[in-house]
Q: What sequence folds into this?
């Protein structure tokens, strides 16, 4: 019985090896394009795809990809991925199930041969925003001035200093107010109409400003606070200069704000499990002492990460996707003139690991939402060139 079982396993492994070899071969072989296949593909498209993609392969509903003029081999690879379940369409369904391989090949060939309406024909080029991220941040910061001061150093006791904190921390704090995971009446109103771009620019602006030491009179005992804050140093840095981007620096922080924040964690009003357990047992006196200690420490400007312009990022993408997103590689999709909303969607799916391609996932991991939006706008506005690569010899 044991032998028979082993044999069965051997057989299954053998089958698996053969099938992967066949699949690998199928992906390697370029499609051949002839008029007969284009014609047959049109019939498949009319019956199965036109309701969403149009017979012309150009966008009907926003958020769907343009198929016209895309490489046939790339299109075919995606249809196979949909059919096998390796790729799941973001709308959940993609009716490929009943189609034969030859129909998938033909419809891929058909769409690849069509001309795409280029955006220069459809819409005027967008006006470029000439303001640098820093200038843009300074401009929006005018809305915050009455409470946080011109440079983020606060206007009255109890206000947090925004300077001396890493920009990623500021971004996540602003997003937390916006999504409601952190609540404060004044801040809720202030963030309500900030865009993703505004938030990034504000964070860059405040993180770059020179921090001014707190001159509010602290009520606690500074030297006792030094001792009592020893357990905080592991995360917040020895004298309140944090080295991790998620942890805010405390050096020079307004003491009244620090007391308020610690109490908010303690009572669970501000939710963070690590902070809650770090301050759970502190007495009111301890907290005041720690606040006095941190208020006296000299704050400093954190390491600033200058955002890369979309042109610089796009240079890296163009290495695979071709100049201005016109791919010359049959298995790399052209992204020039692709639907903007579809591009955003596709990039977010790679970033979050919902669409599996390790290379693309790696490229998109470090990008911010604003970079993804800007890249989508960039490529959507480029012209797609007509077919660059065709295999027409049998
Ligand atoms: C019910 C509407 C619908 C129908 C019918 C449909 N599609 Fe799609 N298709 C979509 C949507 C929506 C997406 C985008 C999926 C995503 O965002 O992941 C898509 C994506 C694709 C893609 C991926 C494009 C890329 O750039 O990666 C290909 C290829 C494609 N469709 C081909 C076809 C073909 C060929 C047919 C007919 C056999 C078809 N589709 C039928 C809605 C449809
Ligand atoms: C009406 C007064 C007011 C205005 C206007 C205001 N804020 Fe605030 N801000 C506060 C208060 C009060 C807090 C502390 C809230 C808390 O304890 O969570 C705060 C907290 C913050 C924090 C969190 C600081 C930290 O260390 O965690 C950030 C970041 C921030 N504000 C940025 C901004 C920005 C950017 C604007 C302008 C778009 C703005 N604020 C406008 C009053 C204001
Ligand atoms: C395990 C790591 C860790 C330890 C230990 C820790 N903290 Fe924190 N602290 C954090 C993180 C992470 C945040 C940001 C949480 C958030 O986003 O709300 C934070 C936030 C804070 C804030 C809010 C600052 C602001 O700008 O809003 C204060 C105040 C604070 N900690 C004080 C302390 C004190 C005092 C101690 C020691 C008694 C301490 N922390 C120990 C990780 C830690
Ligand atoms: C090393 C080569 C490589 C680099 C660099 C690269 N890509 Fe890709 N990209 C690919 C390949 C291959 C695919 C097809 C993957 C698949 O089958 O899902 C792809 C797919 C995509 C798609 C989906 C297109 C569609 O029609 O569904 C988008 C959008 C995209 N890349 C954008 C980018 C952007 C933006 C960058 C730069 C930040 C970038 N890529 C960098 C190779 C690359």
A:
């Amino acid at each position: 019985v044991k032998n028979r079982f082993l044999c069965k396993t051997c057989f299954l492994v053998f089958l698996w090896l053969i099938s992967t070899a066949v699949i690998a071969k199928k992906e390697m072989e370029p499609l051949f394009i002839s008029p007969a296949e284009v014609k047959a593909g049109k019939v498949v498209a009319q019956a199965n795809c036109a309701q969403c993609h149009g017979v012309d392969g150009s966008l009907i509903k926003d958020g769907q990809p343009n198929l016209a003029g895309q490489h046939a081999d790339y299109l075919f690879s995606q249809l196979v991925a949909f059919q096998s379940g390796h790729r799941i369409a973001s709308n959940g369904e993609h009716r490929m199930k009943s189609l034969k391989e030859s129909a998938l090949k033909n419809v891929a060939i058909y769409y690849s041969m069509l001309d795409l309406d280029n955006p220069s024909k459809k819409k005027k080029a967008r006006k470029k925003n000439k303001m640098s991220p820093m200038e843009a941040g300074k401009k929006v910061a005018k809305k915050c001035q009455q409470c946080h001061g011109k440079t983020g150093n606060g206007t009255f006791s109890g206000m947090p200093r925004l300077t001396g904190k890493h920009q990623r921390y500021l971004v996540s704090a602003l997003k937390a107010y916006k999504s409601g995971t952190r609540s404060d009446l004044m801040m809720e109103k202030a963030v309500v109409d900030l865009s993703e771009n505004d938030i990034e620019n504000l964070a860059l602006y405040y993180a770059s400003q020179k921090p001014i030491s707190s001159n509010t009179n602290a009520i606690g005992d500074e030297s006792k606070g030094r001792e009592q804050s020893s357990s905080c140093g592991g995360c917040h840095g020895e004298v309140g200069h944090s080295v991790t981007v998620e942890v805010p620096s405390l050096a020079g922080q307004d003491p009244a704000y620090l007391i308020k924040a610690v109490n908010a964690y303690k009572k669970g009003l501000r939710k963070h499990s690590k902070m809650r357990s770090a301050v759970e047992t502190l007495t009111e006196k301890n907290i005041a002492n720690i606040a006095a200690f941190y208020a006296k420490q000299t704050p400093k400007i954190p390491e600033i990460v200058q955002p890369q312009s979309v042109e610089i990022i796009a240079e890296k993408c163009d290495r695979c996707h071709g100049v201005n997103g016109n791919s010359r590689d049959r298995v790399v999709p052209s992204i020039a003139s692709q639907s903007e909303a579809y591009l955003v969607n596709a990039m977010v799916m790679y970033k979050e690991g919902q669409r599996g391609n390790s290379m693309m996932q790696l490229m998109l991991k470090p990008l911010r939402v604003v970079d993804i939006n800007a890249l989508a706008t960039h490529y959507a506005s480029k012209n797609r060139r007509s077919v660059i690569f065709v295999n027409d010899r049998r």
User: Anything to note?
Assistant: The mean pLDDT is 87. The radius of gyration is 28 Å. Residues 65, 313, 316-317, 319-321, 332-333, 335, 343, 346-347, 355, 357, 359-360, 363, 375 surround heme C (ligand 4) (CB under 6 Å). Residues 344 and 372 are 6 Å apart (CA to CA).
